Amino acid sequence: MMKQLVLVLAIWPLFSSLQLLKQVGSNRCSNNSYAINVMLMNYSDFPSSTNSLKSAVKQALERVRKEFQMTGENVTVDATFHPFNSSLYVSQGCRTSTCEGVELIKTIYDSGTLGCAVIGPACTYATYQMVSLETILSLPLISVGSFGLSCDYKVNLTRLLTPARKLNQFFYYFWRHSGLPFKTTTWESVYIYKRIDTSEPCLWYMNALDAGITEFSEKLKFKDILRTPELLRKTVQSPNRKSNVIIMCGSPEDVRTDLGMEKVDNDIVIILIDLFNNTYFKKNISADYMHHVLVLTLPPTNYSYNTVIRDYIEMEDNSLMEDDFLAGYFNAVLLFGHGLKKFVVSQSPVSPFSLITEFRNTTFEGVMGPVTLDEFGDIDTNLTVLYTSQTANYFKPLLYFNTQSNETYEATNSPDFIWKNHRLPSDTPGTGPHVLTIAVFTLTGIVILVLIISLLILRKYRRDNERRWKKWSHIPPEEILPLETSETSHVSLKIDEDKRRDTTQRLRQGKYDKKVVILKDLKNSDGNFSEKQKMELNKLLQIDYYNLTKFYGTVKIDTMIFGVIEYCERGSLRDVLNDKISYPDGTFMDWEFKISVMYDIAKGMSYLHSSKTEVHGRLKSTNCVVDNRMVVKITDFGCNSILPPRKDLWTAPEHLRHADVSQKGDVYSYGIIAQEIILRRETFYTGHCRDYREKLYRVESGKGVKPFRPDLTLDTVGERQIEVYTLVKSCWEEDPEKRPDFKKIESTLAKIFSNFHGQTNESYMDTLIRRLQLYSRNLEHLVEERTELYKAERDRADRLNFMLLPRPVVKSLKETGLVEPELFEEVTIYFSDIVGFTTLCKYSTPMEVVDMLNDIYKNFDHILDHHDVYKVETIGDAYMVVSGLPKRNGNRHAVDISMMALDILSFMGTFELRHLPGLPVWIRIGIHSGPCAAGVVGIKMPRYCLFGDTVNTASRMESTGLPLRIHVNGSTINILKRTDCQFQYEERGETYLKGRGTEITYWLTGTEDKKYNLPTPPSVENQQRLQDDLAEMITNSLQKRENEGSKAQELSRCDSKSCSNSLDNFMWRLEAYRLRGKRKHLFKHPFYCLTCYQQIKPLFTVTLKLLDDSIRTHAA
């Protein structure tokens, strides 16, 4: 960071004079005259000389001019060459080229020949300074180089040689690739060898691979840097290395120099980055040290050149073809001509800024063939990976990588590598692909898996066979285990009390075969079943269907026989229909869900009717249960000889008349359940008949044209519902033969249900998943709602706790459950009480005393809110406050208590009692400072208590004080003197304090900077007569109130005899109401006493409500 700051300061004079691009443009970029500025930086980092670069640019310019002449355009295109001569320092190459580009562009700008575009520089440092910070140009900058990541994504920069970003893309995809014939594993580790003496391209290529922000580096699990040849040699031979793959940049000569003649491990793969080297394609003999090396380079220059372009390649030894930098400068001019030509031909105005856009997402004819630039102005190419052929002993292509599409193309399927099995090794030592080992383990695993699957299938077949032929027998009682505590507790999302009746929970529960079960009383005391009953039990044992609960057998516990039946967590369907909070209509129990519930019941009954059990006999909504996946299952079926059916609202009319069971009777029961589901009302809902017995009577005797049935009108239903309503009505036809069977009901509902989603047949799993998703959404909504209520209650509880105990104490109790007692070196304690409180109580009713204290102390509490104090307690008329604990506040505790005392005393000067207006209320105040201990005492109704002599002394200061005076100890005065606040006080003199002896005390009278309206204290001479004066004043006030009273006020004076008669009369009227149910008796006579009526009114209201509820329940 410091280096960057120094750099900016050094070149700031250049920036300040470069107001370049707000007004770029000159006479060299218009009127058919266009100029290019070419920066010539003669560095040893690049193989091309200044003269070679000039020659290449001139030849390219001649080519551009010829193209304009061929189209008949009179256009002049020139180039100005600017060699670099720094006035600041002598350049030593690209790594010291930070300021050169900025200084050179300033020189060009000052000369007024900025032109249309700039070619160069090639150094990353120089280019970065030109396109960064405040020097961003508004004319295109074409660079043959500038490889670093710092030059990526610049608005006006175009790069004609492969940047580091493109190489990073190659390595990212190559490392991840595992589908190549010669690379079957992904790589996740690498060593990066960074040579000290390296070229400009290699420096930035390796820095980009080392950078942690690239996608390639982020996906690696291991990466390490090798910086010396010694480390490189040690790594390729070490058996404890972390990776088999090494990336380096340079030439084959660099590999020989740095690796030496050391023997290389057979699993080592070295990837050599050598892009700008054309010698690999001349079939030269590959050296032995290159056998473990893959070379990453550019493709060979085998393009069939345009004859016109070939005429301009006149440099000695075809150096333009051999030198990528020379070709890059040549292509830079061709790119400029390519973009300029579009504007000239279309007669559009040319500006440097518009040329920038033309240098993006374009393809033009370069000296070696087509050149493609991406959306950021960087060149795209086909990178080539070469390997040493073991048979031919020279380099051959292994694969090609297109940087534009990020796709890999194989050059060969079976390369003759030095690595075994013609495959690249794994990047991790010791984990390479061993085909035979893998094959052995794979086959072994397959055989074991097949054996396991076969055993499971065989076991299931045997168990099914055993179950199919299993005969009934009692389950041993010891196999029925009690439930654990965690299994019997049920979490409810309701904060209010759940008052619904849960019939499932009233049944006995247990655990059998690690599953929770229901124990149903079979009303059999000895367990000796008849043959017919045993046959029924055997049939139940063979039933296993997902819409029917599983029957496990019977068990004898004590003298009772129970059926052991599968348990469903959500209770009966009746409970779900009643619970409109957990299963609301709008978000959960919609029409689709109701049909799916009816469909579940129909499927279960269809299976049951086709089984050996044949009939249910007791089908009702309480015998349909819901499991935790919201699947409805039918329970309590069969056992009709053990549990004969009863007459209820689900019973078919023919079975009400003659007790029996039948499949058509089950269909009728299904129709009643369907009406419950659709309307979500009570069983057999009718708007005009609510009596249970009347409904049974009317169904049983309801023969005729229109028998008595539940309400289900077709008048207001839509198209989707009408088909279901019609189906349900057909189920409760009076003639059993007209009722459909469950096969037809199931197929009809399946068709209706599939129409919701446009499917001809929806699978059970689709239905289940949709149902769970619906329940999950409803549950999320319910949890959010209850969480908000919980947070509100928690916050309210916290506020209440903070009112009862100090905030730090509450937090400690919540976190640890205890509060450690604490010693405070210095606090200030305030005590006050009401003078003549006993006398006031004598002449006041209890309610008036409570109102008086509440009025005074509520105002005291409001005053406390403006000071850093803590209210400890109030006992009767005593009021205790402390400052300096539990939160220490330096010397402020004495200041806050003193100011609070002055505010309280000022308030008492204006306070009046409501029941004794005009009567003054006097208080005594005592203040003392000193050490104190504090802690929470007790478990039930805990209190934060203070202990120590300071508490006793503060109490003595109050009791020895005088009315409407603030009595302060010398310790408090000394603390006040140490503060900046200037308090006013008077010396009282020596005062005897019990337990401490005689001390000099003070009266606190105010402050210098604030005027308090304090009441005038009574004189000292009248202290002995205060109690008598107070009693006399109270008597006078009461006498005045009696004299000024009206008739209503006279009624408020209590006549004990009248009130007694009135209360007796009230109790008599309540008893009359209870017996006769006539409320008019309650209001026959008024109360004689207004005060007593106001006191009896709450009792009267509550009692009347209870009696109303009792009489209404009795009548029902």
UniProtKB/TrEMBL annotation:
One annotated Gene Ontology cellular component of this protein:
plasma membrane
Give a single Pfam family match.
Guanylate_cyc
TM stretches of this protein: 435-458
Where is the protein found, in the record's own terms?
Answer: Cell membrane; Endoplasmic reticulum membrane
Task: Give the record's keywords alphabetically.
Answer: Cell membrane, cGMP biosynthesis, Endoplasmic reticulum, Glycoprotein, GTP-binding, Lyase, Membrane, Nucleotide-binding, Receptor, Signal, Transmembrane, Transmembrane helix
Q: What class of enzyme is it?
A: lyase
The record's EC number reads: 4.6.1.2
- Tell me which residues make up the Protein kinase domain: 477-753
Q: Which Gene3D superfamilies match?
A: 3.40.50.2300, Nucleotide cyclase (3.30.70.1230), Transferase(Phosphotransferase) domain 1 (1.10.510.10)
The record's annotation in PANTHER family points to: GUANYLYL CYCLASE, GUANYLYL CYCLASE C
Q: What is this protein called?
A: Guanylate cyclase
Q: Which organism is it from?
A: Cyanistes caeruleus
